[in-house]
Amino acid sequence: MKKHLPNAITCLNLFSGCLALTQIFSSDGNLVYASYFVVLAAVFDFFDGLLARALHVSSPIGKDLDSLADVVSFGVVPGAMLYKLLQGGLDQTDVPAYLAYAGFIVTIFSALRLAKFNNDTRQSDSFIGLPTPACTLVVASLPLILHHDSFGLTSTILNPWLLLALAVVLSGLLVAELPLFALKFKNLRWQDNSVRFIFLLLSLCLLIGLGVAAIPLIILLYVLLSLVRPAKA
Q1: Whole-prediction pTM value?
Q2: What is the domain range of residue 116?
Q3: What is the pLDDT of residues 175-202, one digit of tens each?
């Protein structure tokens, strides 16, 4: 029975992604609720792997199911979210409306990244390229920042050229040969986990100071710290 528990949590990740999609394409297009479901999907995605390691269970089916769930929650969802955001931004300009479909570039590269991960033996203890949940959290933070905009960022975030640039940059990072550390603690010794502790501490400070507006900065911090220190650290 215990070997099916991680897969059950993976299915909750997938279900959360489906709920996010229903919010994105609802009549009122509630991207804020969609972002909350994305966060929930990310929580389930974290705990399915954690539980599998704790129970010492794994299987090819579990690995494939995890990728299939991720391609929805962290591939289709961020692409659809960028599509909707681009639609809103392009409505205020003379730029052709069909450019909104460029948001789905992230979906395509997320699928490529997940396929690459499944066949890359180098990524057992670290990552090569930006993980899809991290990419999706950047996108999902945008509606939350717009909803709680205490810094006057609305016009900047809805700038279609900025959104298009974000889609291209995130897509490149997903498949880049960029070594990134994983938040997997084999022990709690500082010398073995210094980069992880520093990242968590700085992330907490950013969240306290900036709220949801800190999320893109936290992902940027994650990439920068990985460049400063090898991913295996």
Answers
A1: 0.89
A2: 3-228
A3: 999 889 888 777 778 877 888 899 999 9
